[in-house]
């Protein structure tokens, strides 16, 4: 095997680690892959760790023990996240995107891969310490951001549906009160999707009254799963009191004017701290 130079090793190593966040790679894995000694690989990892930290690209963490090694954790600095969300708010504010009922059109934002990836990275950075086992969302608009968050955390995505599907097997169905309309609606989740004792991070696109979010929390209670956090792309300023507490959104929407014609979108307070 032709000898691999250090810059080639480090480039390949960073690609491998960043493509599989939170997965532990042993030193032996890289030694066999590159034909290098453990001491050499340790030096490479130390250099990569400093580079990742210097440029705010996340974190390389060394895990000790028999099954230890190194893993990559996605990370977005608060300053970078604040700048990204502020620019997004400016593009969403105004009169062009306001919809009847105090809603806002931003499906094009949720269809932009780069924007969705950065949202997922930001949410994942905020909740990485909570160590969720999976990300839960409600079909359908929240799926892109939830999938991006799950990818950044290196965990599976679980999707609750409005009705059970034959191809998903036995399912648990619950009724919940829609926060925006006050109607009774149904939520379904396959019994094989999650296991008792796991930890869930709820991610969705929009929070108004909080009925759907409360329904997802109730669903997790039925499965014996702990909800470690709730994150949303956007939440409305009104009503101030939601059906859930402790949630975090990236943006706050307030539709103002007598005819509710102008949207004021601002970064969430926790981002500005």
Give a structural overview.
The chain has 273 residues and is α/β, with parallel strands linked by helices. The chain has two domains: 6-73, Winged helix-like DNA-binding domain superfamily/Winged helix DNA-binding domain (Arc Repressor Mutant, subunit A, Orthogonal Bundle), CATH 1.10.10; 78-272, Rossmann fold. It has helices spanning 6-19, 27-34, 38-54, 78-92, 107-110, 113-127, 143-153, 211-223, 269-272, and strands at 59-63, 69-73, 98-99, 103-104, 134-138, 157-160, 171-177, 184-190, 199-207, 226-236, 248-256, 262-267. Strands 6-5-9-10-11-12 form a six-stranded mixed β-sheet, sandwiched between helices. A hairpin with a 3-residue loop joins strand 3 (98-99) and strand 4 (103-104). Helix 6 crosses helix 7. It is globular.
Topology:
Blueprint: H1 6-19, H2 27-34, H3 38-54, E1 59-63, E2 69-73, H4 78-92, E3 98-99, E4 103-104, H5 107-110, H6 113-127, E5 134-138, H7 143-153, E6 157-160, E7 171-177, E8 184-190, E9 199-207, H8 211-223, E10 226-236, E11 248-256, E12 262-267, H9 269-272
Parallel strand pairs: 5-6, 5-9, 9-10, 10-11
Antiparallel strand pairs: 1-2, 3-4, 7-8, 11-12
Helix pairs in contact: 6-7
What's the overall geometry? globular
Computed over alpha carbons, the radius of gyration is 21 Å
Q: What fraction of residues sit in β-strands?
A: 25-35%
CATH topology name of the largest domain, in short, is: Rossmann fold
Share in helix = 25-40%
Spatial order of strands in the largest sheet: 6-5-9-10-11-12
Structural class based on helices, strands and sheet pairing: alpha/beta
List SSEs in N-to-C order. HHHEEHEEHHEHEEEEHEEEH
**Name given to the CATH architecture of the largest domain:** 3-Layer(aba) Sandwich
**Any idea of the CATH class of the largest domain?**
Alpha Beta
Number of domains: 2
Global mean pLDDT: 93
For the biggest sheet, the summary is:
6 strands, mixed
Beta-strand segment tally = 12
- Give the low-pLDDT segments: none
Distance between the termini: 53 Å
User: How many H/I helical runs?
Assistant: 9
